[in-house]
Specification:
alpha+beta, 2 domains, 7-stranded antiparallel sheet, 3-stranded antiparallel sheet, 10 strands
């Protein structure tokens, strides 16, 4: 267990064939503390973190070459990453998948901010954090436009702030052209992940409502996309 001022922040338990991290709030430091407390050679613990988080950044453009140049220039500023995949344009969106950012929600958000600030494209970051919640951040020219967290209570925020973490269908519709009613029906929130569809299904449904393809893919799967560009960093 990890505690702070008497408050339980996270714990680790082992099931028969798996390891489960219970985090009050998805925080990398807490997760790493649980890792350090576990046996160093426990491969199941390592996999629980690495496999539980994934995500990608989606830019509203058809210019794959422009996104490749952005990735070549900006990724080394944010990440110590060897490879990044830039998808072909699909339905007016290009996705960026990074081998390091997909496993770390904080780094994925940082990559999304950097790509948005450096371009004129609408940017949607979509990810699953530690296998528990679906997270969406919408930005336009570096400005935060909307944020969605499927289980706001895991953010450990005040009730008013939790309301702000619900998707705004009007804003997302204006940015993406998607139907606000469909966004409202799929971008649901709950008090527990158990009250929502599996995160893999939920992130795919939210992305589909926005007209975005490939949000459910992980880095290794994105590498196999036809016409995707693999950007290697020194």
């Amino acid at each position: 267990m990890v505690e702070e001022d008497g408050e339980l922040l996270g714990s680790l338990r082992r099931d028969t064939d798996a390891v489960v991290l219970e985090l009050k709030e998805p925080r990398e430091g807490v997760a790493l503390a649980l890792l350090r407390a576990a046996e160093a050679d426990d491969d199941q613990v390592v996999q629980a973190l690495e496999e539980g988080s994934f995500g990608s950044v989606h830019l509203q453009t058809d210019d794959q070459g422009d996104v490749v140049k952005l990735v070549e220039r900006l990724v080394p500023r944010v990440l110590t990453s060897r490879e990044t995949v830039v998808s072909p344009a699909r339905n007016g969106w290009i996705a960026v998948y990074d081998e390091v950012a997909e496993r770390d929600p904080d780094k994925l958000r940082a990559l999304g901010r950097e790509l948005s600030s450096a371009s004129a494209h609408v940017k949607i970051t979509l990810g699953v954090e530690y296998g528990r919640i679906v997270h969406l951040i919408a930005m336009d020219r570096g400005r935060l436009m909307d944020e969605y967290v499927s289980v706001p209570s895991l953010r450990n925020v005040a009730p008013g702030d939790a309301i702000a973490l619900r998707a705004n269908p009007t804003v997302l519709s204006r940015l993406t052209g998607a139907d606000p009613g469909r966004i409202r029906s799929v971008a649901r929130t709950a008090e527990s992940p158990d009250e929502l569809p599996p995160v893999e299904d939920l992130i795919a449904d939210v992305a589909a409502a926005l007209g975005i393809e490939g949000a459910e893919l992980r880095f290794d799967q994105a590498r196999e996309l036809p016409d995707a560009v693999l950007v290697e960093h020194e």
